[in-house]
Amino acid sequence: MRVLDAIIRIRDLSFTWPGSRRPCLSQLALDVNRGERLFVHGESGAGKSTLLNLIGGVMLPERGYIDVLGRPLGKLSSSNRDRFRVDHTGFIFQQFNLIPYLSVLDNVLLPCRFSTERARRTGGSASAEARRLLAALDLDPRLAHRPAASLSVGQQQRVSAARALIGRPELILADEPTSALDPRRQAVFIELLMGEVTANGGTLVFVSHDQRLAPLFDRCIELLAQ
Ligand SMILES: Nc1ncnc2c1ncn2[C@@H]1O[C@H](COP(=O)(O)OP(=O)(O)O)[C@@H](O)[C@H]1O
Ligand SMILES: [Mg+2]
Predict the structure, then answer these.
(1) Residues of the chain with pLDDT under 70
(2) Which terminal CB of the chain, N or C, has fewer other CB atoms within 10 Å?
(3) Ion ligand 2, residues whose Cβ is below 5 A away
(4) Taking Cα atoms as reference points, which of 159, 135, 138, 137 lies closest to residue 147?
C-alpha cells in the first residue's frame, strides 16, 4: 500500500469512554486509500461508531493520531475541525439524523448552507444537484417537498445518503445505515451509494455488524471488542 495514496492514516489510536474501565479502542492502526471502499465489521459494542466519530473529528483520541487528507485532526481547533468535517466529510448516521420538519430537499441542501466549499462543488445549482442525487438514489421526485419525518425508513436512508454525497466530499462515513432493511434492499442501496461515491472519486468507510455485506466492498476489516 502506498502511503501517499492514504486518505486516512491512523496510528496507535486508543480511546476510553469516560467512566469505563476498559478501552473502547486500543492501539489501532489503519490506512484507507483514496477511492477505496472499506467495510468495517464487528459485533455490537466493538467500537465501530466510536471509530467513525473519531475519523469524523467529532471526538479526539485519548492517544495516537488520525490524519485525514494529510491534516492531523488532533492539531485542529474545535471550530476548525467542525469546518474541516463539513467541507470534506459526508456522514450517514445509523438513525439518519434528518431534521424532521424540513423538507427532503432542504435536508439534502444542509451541507451546502454550512460549507461554501460543498456548495461550490455542486457545479452552480445546489438544488439541481440535490434532485439529481435523490433520483440517482431512486427516490420518487414527488417527495422533494415533503417533510423528512413523513418518509419511510428506506426513503429517509436515501435522503441521508444524498445529504452526505452533495458537494462531493472526499470521504463518506456510513454508520450501519442499512440495518433496518432486508438483505436484498440493503444490497440495492449499497450498490447505488457506491455508484455515486465512485463517480465522485470519493472514499467510503462503511461500518456494520452484518458480515454478509462484506463481499460488496473492496476490503474488509474486523474490529474486535476489547
Ligand atoms: N456516549 C458514550 N458514553 C459512554 N460509553 C459509550 C458511549 N458510546 C459508546 N460507548 C461504549 O463504547 C463501546 C463501543 O460502542 P460503539 O462505538 O457504539 O460500538 P458499535 O458501534 O460497534 O456498536 C460500548 O461498550 C459502549 O457502551
Ligand atoms: Mg454503532
Answers:
(1) 1-4
(2) N
(3) 48-49
(4) 159
Name the pTM for this structure: 0.95
C-beta 224 within 6 A of ligand 1? no
The whole-angstrom distance between residue 54's C-alpha and the CA centroid of its chain comes to: 12
Ligand nearest to the CA of 58: 1
The answer to whether 213 and 190 are in contact (CB under 8 A) is yes
Q: Tell me, using a 6 A CB cutoff, whether residue 127 lines ligand 1.
A: no
| Cβ of 24 below 6 Å from ligand 1 | yes
**Residue 4 burial (CB < 10 Å; 0-12/13-18/19+)?**
exposed
Interatomic CA distance for residues 19 and 123, integer angstroms: 47
Which burial class, exposed, middle or buried, applies to 180 when counting CB atoms under 10 A from its CB (0-12, 13-18, 19+)? middle
Q: How many CA atoms are closer than 13 Å to the CA of 67, on its beta-carbon side? A: 15
Q: Is residue 191 within 8 Å of residue 73, measured between CB atoms? A: no
CATH architecture of 36-58+88-222: 3-Layer(aba) Sandwich (3.40)
